[in-house]
Write a structure and sequence with these properties.
The chain is an alpha/beta fold and about 375 residues long. It is about 40% helix and about 15% strand. Helix 4 (about 75-90) runs parallel beside helix 14.
């Protein structure tokens, strides 16, 4: 089986709760020359190719004196961490090679000797890390809100009451919230409920962690800034590669009392890289102005969805309390044929292997066409 890139794998979209794992393989007549004009109807990022990444990295290195880090210490990475801490309103920040590791080590540090951790039942932490927290850090995950994005303050109070009544003391040490939730097609955790849970946790001396892998996407849709989202939480993780196109990396921000010395634990878990300056450089490049660019893309998508929802060949299902994902069903037309015809118009779409429904993902490449241009392209394909 031919290898596919991580970005193409994760950019794969389907109709299941987990968005499926279908390779995002759009057909383009001349991808090398059209790359900067292509609208990608899937994925959180811009679909940057290895050649484009290398060329961008070369330009960035020519434009400034890049200070090399040493095993993620000092240099460009240290400057990058300071920028993130300020951006999220935290004392400090630490670069990690992956969000999986950032999430686990945050919970490990917050929980300390209190090994029970409350998590959303649909979260990445609970479903997609192979029991890493349990196996590697001795944490006991307590999932709440099966099949839902939000658990409530009352749900948390019930768990705390139950643990307090046990014959053996087993305190809850940390609470994790994921928002938006990938397994629920980008649904967000209710913001008011999150703040209420955070206030309860502070009263009880329980650490709060935000899995905000797609935090900046949520900000573009809600108008709540990343710093405001981060404020109720002790620690916050944000992905660097999902929409900042760095290929690897994650940032974990929080108080010094939690994160000072975290580089030792990162090394202990095999999470050190010889250098991380390249990822930091590329991510910082795409961070600047991202929220504004995505907001403009969102406006384009809203106009497109509003118009195409009336078309007899297309059904559009919006995700309740969602962000950049929508389910699209083609009626009386082959999605594969639609994808091929859109390719001639510099629009990249991946057809599902079976059925008529797939998931569109709004990203900043939607800025490469106006809403009328996108609408006209689809109407031409359907005619």
């Amino acid at each position: 089986m031919p290898a596919i890139s991580r970005r193409h794998f994760v950019g794969a979209l389907g109709t299941t709760a987990g968005l499926g794992c279908l390779p995002y393989t759009p057909v383009l007549a001349n991808p090398a020359t059209q790359a900067d004009r292509v609208v990608h109807l899937a994925g959180d990022g811009i679909g940057i190719s290895p050649r484009e990444y290398a060329a961008l990295l070369g330009r960035l290195c020519q434009s400034k004196d890049v200070a090399e880090d040493n095993y993620l210490l000092g240099g460009e990475v240290e400057q990058f961490e300071r920028h993130w801490a300020q951006l999220l309103g935290k004392e400090t920040a630490v670069f990690f090679p992956s969000g999986t590791l950032a999430n686990q080590l945050a919970l490990r540090a917050l929980a300390g000797s209190k090994k029970r951790v409350i998590v959303p039942e649909m979260s990445h932490i609970y479903n997609d890390t192979g029991d890493a927290c349990q196996t590697l850090s001795g944490l006991t995950l307590m999932p709440l809100a099966p099949g839902r994005a939000t658990f409530t303050k009352a749900d948390v109070e019930a768990v705390l009451a139950r643990t307090a009544s046990g014959r053996v003391a087993t305190d809850v040490g940390a609470i994790a919230i994921e928002s938006p939730i990938r397994r629920l097609s980008g649904q967000m955790f209710d913001w008011n409920e999150a703040k209420a849970i955070s206030a309860l946790a502070r009263d009880r001396g329980i650490g709060m962690h935000l899995d905000g892998a797609r935090l900046f996407i949520a900000s573009a849709y809600t108008g709540i800034s990343p710093a405001e989202y981060s404020a109720p939480f002790d620690t916050v993780y944000v992905s660097l590669w999902k929409y900042f196109n760095s290929g690897i990396g994650a940032i974990l921000a929080g108080p010094k009392r939690v994160l000072d010395g975290m580089f030792h634990v990162r090394r202990m878990f095999g999470g050190n890289l010889a250098v991380g300056w390249n990822a930091a450089l590329v991510a910082r490049h795409y961070m600047d102005g991202f929220e504004g660019r995505l907001k403009t893309a969102v406006q384009t998508s809203e106009a497109f969805y509003s118009a195409m929802a009336k078309h007899p060949r297309m059904g559009i299902e919006r995700i309740p309390n969602g962000t950049n994902l929508a389910r699209v069903t083609f009626k009386g037309v082959s999605p594969a044929d639609v994808a091929r015809r859109l390719a001639d118009r510099s629009i990249a779409m991946s057809a599902p292997p079976t059925g008529q429904t797939l998931t569109f993902g709004v990203n900043e490449t939607w800025n490469r066409m106006s809403a009328p241009e996108l609408i006209r392209a689809f109407e031409d394909v359907f005619s």
